[in-house]
Specification:
Length: about 220
């Protein structure tokens, strides 16, 4: 089956952007996320987000490493993007040196992680939308969110917001352009596009499910 090229179709990044826009908006507009963006979450409620996404990023980054030699998606193995250790530094800030005792699971988190395991074992191409969704937004807007959280929780010297600090990336704009070039160079067939878009929608729905869970747990409505 012949693969389509960027010259024959819209770039994959644009196809995913447009094809997941509705699910993206829904994920950003759960009550929990709106409270986060407005600086209204308690510190406890925010730190619980870090706990949940520690599991997600661990699974994502293990998947990316496992697929680093894959001829289709290996180019997305970019360790400078990894967030797991940064989340662990933030967890240590909020929970102290025994932060590992705070690590708990939840149905929505387990479902998200299971989806990433499926990608790793059954469909490596499915890494693309998950990778893009979990990193691209924070590359663009993470610094702004970090400033807001620093003010909201009275943090200082970068403590508690390591997740948003991509210290190994010297030129953010250049890196983002290179990232999209790598993503758009992934060889896909015309038949791959719809499943990739659906996987992106599934990722956004999984993200929303976790924050709905958190909203229910912390009474955010």
């Amino acid at each position: 089956m012949e693969t389509s090229t960027a010259q024959e179709r819209e770039p994959l990044s644009k196809l995913l952007y447009h094809g997941t826009s509705e699910a993206h908006r829904a994920a950003e507009n759960t009550p929990y996320m709106l409270a986060l963006f407005q600086g209204k979450l308690t510190k406890k409620a925010y730190s619980a987000w870090l706990v949940r996404f520690h599991a997600v990023y661990s699974a994502l980054e293990q998947t990316a490493e496992a697929l680093r030699a894959d001829p289709a998606v290996g180019a997305l193995y970019l360790p400078q993007l990894d967030r797991t250790e940064a989340i662990e530094r933030d967890l240590a800030c909020f929970y102290g040196r025994d932060w590992r005792d705070s690590l708990t699971t939840s149905p929505a988190t387990d479902a998200y992680v299971a989806r990433l395991h499926r990608v790793r074992e059954e469909w490596p191409l499915g890494l693309v939308p998950h990778h893009w969704i979990r990193y691209a937004g924070y590359l663009h807007g993470g610094a702004t969110l970090a400033k807001m959280l620093t003010t909201t929780y009275g943090l200082s010297d970068g403590a508690g917001v390591a997740f948003y600090d991509f210290t190994e990336i010297e030129d953010n704009r250049t890196f983002i352009a290179d990232y999209h070039a790598r993503m758009n160079a992934v060889p896909v067939t015309a038949e791959d596009v719809a499943p990739l878009v659906e996987e992106g929608n599934h990722a956004f729905r999984g993200n929303a499910a976790i924050t709905v869970e958190l909203g229910e747990e912390f009474g955010v409505s």
